[in-house]
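I hope you will forgive my troubling you with a question about protein structure. The full record is reproduced below for your convenience:

——
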Amino acid sequence: MTRAPLGDADSASRLNETIRSWSQQWSGTLLGLEHQASPDDRGHFHWLIRLKGEEKDVITLWLSLRQRSVHVETELMPAPEENREALLRFLLVKNAELRDVHFAIGPEAGIYLMTQIPINEVDVERLDELVGATLTYVDEIYPTAMTMGLPAIYRRRPRI
């Protein structure tokens, strides 16, 4: 088995250029792009991509360049307050249909979509596929998940 190469400042620079090139294609949907130019205390570099969603107003993707991979995550919803078991079952069934990403329980029991990609596989096309899949899944699943898990605070917007 061949292992992905170790990430370093050059990997961060290349990934930053890839993200910048990718962002030029998403001008209508891209709300913001931020980059932490220096690594955190674990040596990880970070990017924050904010996109306009249809069902969820803002979809935020966090990208972290780790030792050998790029970790990507977005919060689908905060921790469910009701119907937790039914919601988790719904999400596990949906997990089997997803391409490129999977559901996970994240910090403070929030529901996340996430994936990891080997450093050497991240290019503009791969990033485009990943972001497109994430937007599609969030817009598709968010209303049902919120209605199930947080019905007291979520009301689906009427379609025009």
User: Anything to note?
Assistant: Strands lie at 30-36, 45-52, 58-65, 69-77, 102-105, 111-118. The longest strand covers residues 69-77. The helical segments are 9-23, 84-95, 124-149. The mean pLDDT is 91.
